[in-house]
Amino acid sequence: MIIDIALHEWRRLRAGMMFWVLLAFGQLIIAWLAFAQLEAFAKISPQLKAGALSLGVTDLVVVPTLNTLVLILLLSAPLLAMGSLAGEIHSGRISLWLSSPVRGSQIVLGKILGLWLASLPLVISAILTLAALGLGIDLDWPRFLLAAVGLLLLSLWLGSIALFVSGLFDHPAAALAASYGVLLFLWLLDTFGGSDAPWYWLALLPHVKPWFQGLLRSQDIVFFVATGGAAALLGIYSIARKRGEV
Fold first, then answer.
1. Do 236 and 104 form a contact (C-beta atoms < 8 A)?
2. How far is 164 from 140, CA to CA, in rounded Å?
3. In angstroms, rounded to a whole number, what is the distance separating the alpha carbons of residues 214 and 234?
4. Which tens digits make up the pLDDT trace of 222-245?
5. How far is CA 192 from CA 81, 147, 182, 199, in A?
6. What are the tens digits of pLDDT across the range 176-214?
7. CB-based contact 206:194 (threshold 8 Å)
8. Helix (H, G, I), strand (E, B) or coil at 148
9. For a Cys-Cys bond, which of 119, 146, 184, 206 suits 155, CB 3.0-4.6 Å?
C-alpha cells in the first residue's frame, strides 16, 4: 500500500505544471553553472599547475555546482509538498483518506516516498550532467559518488520535513511559507554561533558539507535519520489526531 500511495503521489505531482517548471529551471541552472565553472577552471588551470596546488575540477567545478543543487532542492521541496497534506485538507479530500482502512503510517510514508520520487529526476539529471565531465577530465569518483548518495538522502529528508509541515496547515500557501521558514532556519542556524553552540547539531549545512569533502560521518547519518524519522512520526501522529485516535 505504501508503494501504491507513493506512485499515486508521484503521478499527481507529475501531472502538474509545477513539477516540470522546477525540473526545467533546476536543470538549466545546474548546466549553466557547471559549464561556467568549467570555463573559469580552464582559465586558471595553468596557474594551479604552476603553483603545484592540489585543487582540481572536483573542488572548483563539481562542489560549487552541488552546493547550488542543495539550494535548489531546498526551494523545490516545499513547492512540491505544499499540496500533499495541506492541499488535501483544503480541498476536503482528506476525509477520503481518513475514512479509508489505510493506516496513517502508510499514508505518510507513501506521500514521503512520492515526494522523493518527484525530486529524483532533478537530482539524477544534475548528477549525470556533472558525471559527464569525467569523460574528458579526471574526477575524484569516490568523493563524487559519496556526494551523489548524500544528495539522494537529503532529498528524502526534505520530503519528510516538508510533508510534516504541510500536515500542520489547512491551506497550501500557509504550508509553503512555514516550510520555507523551517528550512531557512535550519540552513542559517550554524551562523548564529560557533560549533560549540548547543543548537549547532541541528544546523543543516554542517551535515551536508562533509559529503562534498569526501567524509562519511556517523553524526551526519544520525542527524538525517533522527530528524527525518521524527518528522515522519509527527506526521503520522497528526493523521491519528485528525482521525480521533489520540
1. yes
2. 36
3. 32
4. 999 999 999 999 998 988 887 777
5. 28, 26, 15, 9
6. 999 999 999 999 888 887 777 788 888 899 999 999 888
7. no
8. helix
9. 119
